[in-house]
């Protein structure tokens, strides 16, 4: 069973007919939203889903922004922490996947990847935080890791990070996009942001087994695949 219709929900569509899992992929699409109603809607849907399907294993997608000191006090991260806590207290069997910045076939302008691409293409000015880094991961890689975990029954009733082994300085991401598009962006470098670590040791063996590599060229491959 799938709850949601966004990019992640569509990628996990093979679970739609499964009666042992409910993949909850109906979250707030804009992590910058300040509207309480957006977050309340997700929580109410989650409560209703758990009440209707208590026998199913819940799969929930949280965020690695929890580790970002510049985001920890924000509405989005605080909401995700509340949801995680509710799941731990309420679901008999669950998997919480904290994912980083997922890149995939999405027209959502609020994703960091689409935001930079759209602004560079439109020659629209935007800010680049000089000290910030972002962890980008292919949606297909997220699916491969999560699917492996679910099939093997690993990390049940635990929280697992699914992210790239490497985070990229935001300026480096912008420069890579500029080179790929062969177009200079119009941006202002701002002395803000920070870097943070995401522990992916729990999935290191899975990445190796599935031969998922994050080496040189990963960003370019994402652009080739998803820049549209």
From TrEMBL:
Pfam families for this protein: Epimerase
Domain NAD-dependent epimerase/dehydratase: 37-162
Domain of life, per lineage: Bacteria
Coiled-coil intervals, chain numbering: none
UniProt cross-references to InterPro entries, sorted A to Z: Epimerase_deHydtase, NAD(P)-bd_dom_sf
Protein's UniProt name: NAD dependent epimerase/dehydratase family protein
Species of origin: Niabella drilacis (strain DSM 25811 / CCM 8410 / CCUG 62505 / LMG 26954 / E90)
Organism phylogeny: Bacteria, Pseudomonadati, Bacteroidota, Chitinophagia, Chitinophagales
């Amino acid at each position: 069973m799938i709850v949601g219709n966004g990019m992640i929900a569509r990628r996990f569509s093979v679970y739609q007919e499964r009666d042992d899992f409910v993949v909850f992929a109906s979250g707030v699409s804009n992590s910058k939203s300040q509207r309480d109603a957006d977050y309340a809607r997700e929580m109410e849907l989650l409560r209703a889903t758990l009440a209707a399907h208590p026998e199913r294993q819940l799969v929930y997608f949280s965020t690695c922004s929890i580790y970002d000191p510049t985001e920890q006090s924000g509405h989005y991260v605080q909401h995700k922490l509340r949801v995680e806590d509710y799941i731990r207290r309420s679901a008999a069997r669950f998997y919480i996947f904290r994912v980083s910045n997922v890149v995939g076939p999405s027209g959502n302008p609020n994703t960091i990847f689409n935001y930079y691409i759209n602004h560079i293409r439109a020659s629209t000015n935007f800010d680049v935080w000089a000290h910030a880094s972002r962890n980008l991961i292919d949606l297909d890689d997220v699916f491969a890791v999560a699917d492996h975990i679910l099939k093997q029954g690993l990390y049940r009733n635990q929280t697992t990070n699914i992210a790239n082994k490497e985070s990229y300085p935001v300026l480096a991401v912008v420069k890579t996009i500029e080179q790929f598009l062969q177009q200079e962006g119009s941006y202002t470098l701002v002395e803000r942001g920070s870097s943070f670590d995401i522990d992916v040791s729990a999935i290191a063996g899975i990445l190796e087994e599935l031969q998922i590599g994050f080496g040189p060229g990963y960003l370019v491959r994402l652009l080739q695949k998803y820049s549209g």
